[in-house]
Amino acid sequence: MALFFNxxxxxxxxxxxxxxxxxxxxxxxxxLGSNTLRESQEGIIVNHWxxxxxTVERVYSKEKKLPKExxxxxxxxxxxxxxxxxxxxxxxxxxxxxxxxxxxSPRVISLPPLDFKPSIHATEVSLxxxxxxxxxxxxxxxxxxxRLSVCKPYWDAKWTxxxxxxxxxxxxxxxxxxxxxxxxxxxxxxxxxxTLDLSNKKLKYQHLRLRNLPKIPEVGWEILDQCxxxxxxVESTSGExxxxxxxxxxxxxxxxxxxxxxxxxxxxxxxxxxxMVFREDGKSIDFCYMEDIGxxxxxxxxxxxxxxxSANMYPGLKPNSIYYIGPGLGSYDLASGTVxxxxxxxxxxxxxxxxxxxxxxxxxxxxx
Length: 368
Description:
It is built from two helices and 28 strands. It is mainly beta and 368 residues long.
């Protein structure tokens, strides 16, 4: 991720017409960083800066007071437009709408503290509602590589940790299905789909069958076999379930230090090679390959809950596309198979700080 920010700090091919939110309609935004504006008697005043995929511009949130509960916490996930964080010392967990661009009075919901230190590099969090401040809800999270953690905050005083076999652990996306009122995740090798039964907090697994694979030359499959592949699940706005394979390729290239012409070493980074999208076939667990998802846009990230939106609702988004943040930032056109990389400005101001892993934020209605 550091290489990613080094790259975008050097490139300025895109517009940097920074603007502030006022009554702008919500949209999927990429949270990039925070600015500490000043300290006052009320507390620390901050704002946040984002990348807008519709306009390819940098945008800023309103000024807002940083809630004391969140000071010094580490961000660990972004479900339903909210952001989850964990305290580094007491391991307290909070979810907040602080990072929603139009929010002026942030809300913070406290969850039970963890009884172990999470594996920050592999965290994922999912919510059963888009407004946990108003509704009873359930949180499912992956804070370690061998267990799924579940909590119903208004009822539970502690987390329930469900052990999983290594070959079946939720290594990829953890999502909540509004259609089925259940949490889904993929297995380590993408051979199974796991379901969390909310009635008894037990896991169930079903074998994943992929049909109608794309017609790719043998040399093309050989290249994909050498790529790293991550597996993702996302539910469409109409309740359809999609399984996505994301192929990334490791690139090695020489780097020469301009100040020392004799100094040369390799720089290693990853690029997105291809996506494959499979749609659930009716109520079976079969998934069929497809290259046309209509006006849908899918948003994938390494630590935020995957989601989709209708491009018709957000002019400027490209339909039938996947917007991604992980190895690099860009969009992928499913029909043509072309990748469009984005290079947003890397600095929000002199006192800005980068988010450890940038999050896509699910759009939501503005809150005054």
